[in-house]
């Protein structure tokens, strides 16, 4: 063998070894990317769910409506024109069936 001659088996073995190592690193890189993506997706879902929850236990409104599965109003709770709380129950056609009004003048203490 002369100086400058390249032994093919050594280069081929080197190339195969480098290729195998590169393939292993690429597989690890793909797994790492998938793992990071799953973690980011999990945190995103968590914060999306937590962010939608109300921060207060109090609901304030001028009027509350209770609707059935068809979207028809079946009950309402609101202040009437005289400043008194009024609770109405309605049938399926929307007609008032019962009204409860708080009348301060005739209110009894319990």
Quick gist of this model?
Helices cover 41% and strands 22% of the residues. It has 110 residues and is an alpha+beta fold. The chain has two domains: 1-53; 63-106.
Q: What would your notes on this structure say?
A:
- Helix content is 41%, strand content 22%.
- The protein has 110 residues and is of the alpha+beta class.
- It folds into two domains: 1-53; 63-106.
- It has a four-stranded antiparallel β-sheet, with no helix packed on it.
- The longest helix is centred in the N-terminal third of the chain and has 45 residues, at 8-52.
- The chain is rod-shaped.
Distance between the termini: 114 Å
Strand line-up of the largest beta sheet: 1-2-3-4
**Overall number of structural domains:** 2
- Uncertain regions spanning at least 5 consecutive residues: none
Beta-strand portion reads 15-25%
Radius of gyration over alpha carbons?
37 Å
Q: What level of helicity do the residues show?
A: 40-55%
Number of helices: 1
Label the overall shape: rod-shaped
Quaternary state of this entry equals single chain
Order of helices and strands: HEEEE
Strand tally: 4
| Rounded mean pLDDT score | 82
Computed structural class: alpha+beta
